[in-house]
Design a protein that fits this description.
Blueprint (H helix, E strand, L loop, with lengths): L2 E14 L2 E14 L3 E5 L6 H8 L7 E6 L2 E2 L7 E5 L10 H12 L5 H14 L15 H13 L5 E5 L7 H17 L4 E4 L3 H7 L2 E5 L6 E6 L14 H17 L11
Adenosine-5'-triphosphate binds next to strand 1, strand 2 and helix 1.
């Protein structure tokens, strides 16, 4: 399959008052078109920095970030982003919030067409009938559904999800995980998910990348070869439990705690 994103030997430091802070070091990973990649790693290791490099909001000190084989040299309009805090605009209705990226990326698209596209997405995530509401009239889970619609409305090349489910209660989170699998069928996309939740990574991703402690490099890659949509009880299978144990072990190594355990013992 074609590689949509290739990150090749990327290193990056932030300038701080105390001197340069190396955050990424010789990091490489690639994501094929249509794949769902989850990135996990110790807190502060550089996961969000990686998303900013892919979105073209920052550029690496060395190495390359390629999108469709072309080096990312400027902010990309073709990226959709969803964060832990959905940041919906209260002075706009839910429909108007979802339309927002189209106003930037496709300003000439007729208003009716923009609305039709946004309404179709809102219906897909179960928000039909809420188009005219304000964000504050929706629950946290509903706001996050609307935020997902907004990040997909302009058919982005890559959907970057930076802990979008982290602030939700466990049941709502599982609902949204299942929704992501359904959305992949109805509205195929390529995704990079940043998460601290190993279960989330195993349930959602085709590939889980574990980053080392800062400065982060690719420490471990796990392929989750289970077709979607996945039933939630997939997480209770022996295979999933083994994968979770493997990932947990890798995170401990990344945190500098413990050594490699023999997961087959
Ligand atoms: N603009 C900046 N200037 C200086 N240092 C920064 C800047 N942005 C991030 N950092 C530092 O770089 C490191 C990596 O930050 P980043 O947000 O990428 O990590 P993260 O893995 O996403 O963290 P978390 O898991 O806690 O969300 C952190 O130590 C952070 O304090």
């Amino acid at each position: 399959m074609t590689k949509l994103i290739e990150i090749k030997g990327v290193s990056h430091s932030y300038k701080t008052a105390a001197g340069p802070l190396p955050v990424l070091k010789d990091l490489s990973l690639s994501i094929a078109e249509g794949d769902f990649c989850a990135v996990v790693g110790p807190s502060g290791c550089g996961k969000s920095t990686l998303t900013r490099l892919i979105a073209g909001l920052m550029f690496p000190d060395s190495g390359e970030v390629l999108l469709h084989g072309e080096q990312v040299k400027s902010p990309r309009k073709s990226v959709g982003m969803a964060f832990q805090n959905p940041v919906l605009l209260e002075w706009r209705t839910i429909l108007q919030n979802v339309i927002l990226p189209l106003e930037i990326v496709a300003p000439r698209m007729p208003k009716e067409q923009k609305e039709e596209r946004a309404r179709a997405l809102l219906a897909m995530v179960g928000l039909q009938g809420f188009e005219g509401k304000r964000p504050s009239e929706l629950s946290g889970g509903m706001r996050q559904r609307a935020s997902l619609c907004r990040s997909l409305v302009h058919k982005p090349d890559i959907l970057i999800l930076d802990e979008p489910f982290g602030a939700l209660d466990a049941f709502t989170r599982e609902d949204l995980w299942q929704l992501m699998h359904q959305l992949r069928i109805d509205e195929p996309f390529t995704a990079l998910l940043i998460t601290h939740d190993l279960r989330e990574s195993v349930y959602l991703a085709d590939q889980v990348v574990v980053l080392s402690g800062r400065p982060a490099t690719t420490q471990f890659v796990l392929d989750i070869d289970v077709p979607g949509p996945r039933p939630i009880d997939m997480l209770y299978s022996m295979q999933a439990v083994e994968w979770l144990a493997q990932l947990r072990n890798q995170i401990e190594i990344a945190q500098g705690r413990g050594g490699e355990k023999d997961m087959t013992a």
